[in-house]
Specification:
Elements (H helix, E strand, L loop, with lengths): L4 E5 L2 E5 L4 E3 L5 H7 L11 E4 L4 E9 L11 H18 L6 H11 L3 E9 L14 H12 L7 E3 L10 E4 L2
Parallel strand pairs: 5-6, 6-7
Antiparallel strand pairs: 1-2, 2-8, 3-4, 4-5
Helix pairs in contact: 2-4
């Protein structure tokens, strides 16, 4: 029996089901040392997850509970760029020398479906210092428009709304 995979991103702990291959893509040595800076720069999603039902999940995590968003690019455009660049990076990662990265890139490219998930945490209450800036349904709608050829139904979720994901997320100190 396989163990569940747990990955921490900032103050969030993600626990994935048995049988899933999960990795922090933006921490891959291939991404950091070879792909990130090529072609005038590339971005990457936080996690890749290949589910037992042959689906590739591209997961981006944003936690604005204690830090404001300062980037000028729209959040949905940032997620779309990271999605595009990650998919290109997976094709290039077939050349990776790290066996586990090469293996997961190959497996990812052979999946039958791609899903995009934005896990977005905001302050529980609105304040001037830490505003609740994003309406999850608006972000989801914008992502649908941009990512339709890749995933016509991207998911936007948070701790209170675990919308249609197969893993659990908890807050850690």
């Amino acid at each position: 029996m396989q163990n569940k995979t747990c990955i921490q991103e900032g103050r969030l702990l993600f626990e994935f089901p048995d049988g899933w291959d999960v990795s922090k893509y933006d921490q891959w040595s291939f991404y950091k040392n070879r792909f990130k800076d090529c072609c005038n720069g590339n971005k990457g999603v936080d996690f890749l997850a290949c589910s037992s039902d042959n689906c590739l999940w591209l997961i981006e995590v944003k936690d604005y509970r204690s830090d404001r968003r300062t980037k000028e690019i729209y959040l949905w455009d940032e997620v779309a760029l990271k999605t595009r660049d990650t998919l290109a990076g997976l094709v290039a990662a077939k050349m990776a020398t790290d066996h586990s990265e090469h293996s997961l890139a190959q497996k990812s490219l052979m999946t039958e479906k791609i899903r995009v998930v934005l896990h977005l945490e905001q302050p529980a209450t609105h304040s001037k210092l830490f505003p609740r800036v994003f309406d999850l349904s608006k972000v989801r709608q914008k992502l649908r428009q941009i990512l339709k050829p890749i995933d016509a139904h991207p998911i936007v979720t948070d701790l209170q709304n675990p919308n249609m994901v197969c893993w659990s997320v908890s807050s850690v100190s």
